[in-house]
């Protein structure tokens, strides 16, 4: 009975923890050889909620895939890069969150995390007024941030209501 | 690179010792189950049996504790002596030269290798234990415990290790990611050098030994295709009973290249080749308060080395021949060739500061 109750609570937690980063494609400067990539991969795999990490040395690209319900924050991935002595650059992200603020200054609160970004359109023509207060999936670019910091803006390319 | 010399013999032996340590540790674990044993005895034979067994277990556990402590200490020493070459190389670096890589934060590195210097006076091999720990992303603590065998009557060298133990810190004070795979960086190292249990051979073997300090500075550029490092180091020993080992100034220039076909992925072997130019100037040997005539030396060496890396393992081999040799044959003999092979193991930290 106790086990069933615990399983039920965990199940509820999983259901309520919807929304988060789905995938992060982060450009990392300075990785010249496989041990560099191996170290990055190991560090990132250890972040809770990461299901897979691929590193392309020739492109300097780290692809992070996250599990459903992951509560990993961007800060953790930046730290993983920094502690291995490399420099994180722009990151392409696919992220789910709740839209707030105003239609002129929309904000995205990444569900299940403390990450919050000011949304800036990559190109003109996207109207987010109808999406306010809704859960959305955003694809966009997080610009490079200083060491120990996370970006404050997300330049979105696409935005759609989350199903 | 190994200005302290990085050498250490059989890595396999080191790993065997580590395994022995692990299995010994698991053997001690049964002590933790003694309460379980006592409980079952108590149920079967009563409280007296429990008391008797308890005192017996206590005695045994004290004995085991002493044995465990000494075994741990001995294994630590043995592992330290055997796992070699250093943190200075940290697997990314050329074999003989100064370079900039340091360990990642929380990363351990162990090196083991065999280095040799052959001359008219014989062949001198050196080996040792190198250990590095990344304290911060750009700060690494190093320790190096070499061992030497064979006699060569050769001049002092900090590029090729002697018998001195060393411990210190490397700080990569400049680290600039300039693009995909590209870095510009500079590293400074400072170490204390202490005489090991073995004495040197030849002229240097007759001297009273004293500790010293060693410093080095290296700068370079890395990329997916090419590497370039320049570096220089200086070592000075204290005087002991009017004797003093010679001051040594060392320098190196290294060019590395990775062909396009070898610019492969994370899970494949990575190879690169280096051309290493190294040089050293050693001052005069002070013995009995006087500088021995013609005891200073100046040499330059050139040769190739190849580095292969697979995940956390690296193997490297190289050879060098003299291009400049200004040293007294009467005192030191003629050094003809330097060679080395080095194995590295890196224990990466999977720790994330905040999970």
UniProtKB/TrEMBL annotation, chain A:
CDD domains: HMA (cd00371). GO terms for molecular function: metal ion binding. It comes from the Bacteria. Residues 22-89 form the HMA domain. InterPro entries: HMA_dom (IPR006121), HMA_dom_sf (IPR036163). Pfam families: HMA. This is Copper chaperone CopZ.
Automatic annotation (TrEMBL), chain B:
It comes from the Bacteria. It comes from Granulicella mallensis. This is Uncharacterized protein.
